Design the sequence.
């Protein structure tokens, strides 16, 4: 009977450690005014075109001491902004984001480690056009502090990644409009008020 005791104690220790991490994590709410994903794609061999999404929301549960975080971000696909109304409507249609059928783009990652003093790589899952696939993000060092204008605590970072859009079913005009899409996402989030 005594031989089983160390395993029980060890399991209890792991559980208590996990609970302590959850308790230490703070909730941060995405600041949609300063979190607007930008994408870049080669266009017909002439240039690199850029677009962005203007409506982003979500939460980050983040422990500043350990760097452990869980991320849940939703992008309203209809908020795509290409700089021209007719182009925006085309991108919202069935050839591309088909926002009537798939109104949101979602990224989620659980129990990932964000770099406190340097860049880190974060593995998560991206849901787009009803397809969910793994994606890895490169995240700059996290900066947290008091935002002077609002007098609220905020954290922020810059995120980059490259995806093959066809893997999510965005195949229109490939290869004339490139399959490879570069994403750059400035992220800022306020500590949730209690």
Sequence:
């Amino acid at each position: 009977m005594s031989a089983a005791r160390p395993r029980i104690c060890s399991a209890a220790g792991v559980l208590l450690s996990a609970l302590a991490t959850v308790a230490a994590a703070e909730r941060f709410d995405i600041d949609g005014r300063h979190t607007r994903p930008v994408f870049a794609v080669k266009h017909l061999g002439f240039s690199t075109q850029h677009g962005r999404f203007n409506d982003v929301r979500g939460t980050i549960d983040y422990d500043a001491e350990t760097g452990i975080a869980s991320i849940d971000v939703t992008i309203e696909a209809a908020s795509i902004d290409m700089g021209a109304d007719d182009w925006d409507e085309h991108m919202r249609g069935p050839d591309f984001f088909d926002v009537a059928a798939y109104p949101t783009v979602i990224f989620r990652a659980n129990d990932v480690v964000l770099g406190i003093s340097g860049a880190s790589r974060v593995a998560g899952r991206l849901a787009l056009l009803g397809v969910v696939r793994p994606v890895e993000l490169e995240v700059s060092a996290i900066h947290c502090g008091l935002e002077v204008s609002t007098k609220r605590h905020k954290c922020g970072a810059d995120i980059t990644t490259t995806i093959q859009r066809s893997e999510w079913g965005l195949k229109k005009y490939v290869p004339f409009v490139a399959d490879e899409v570069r994403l750059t996402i400035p992220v800022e989030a306020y500590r949730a008020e209690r």
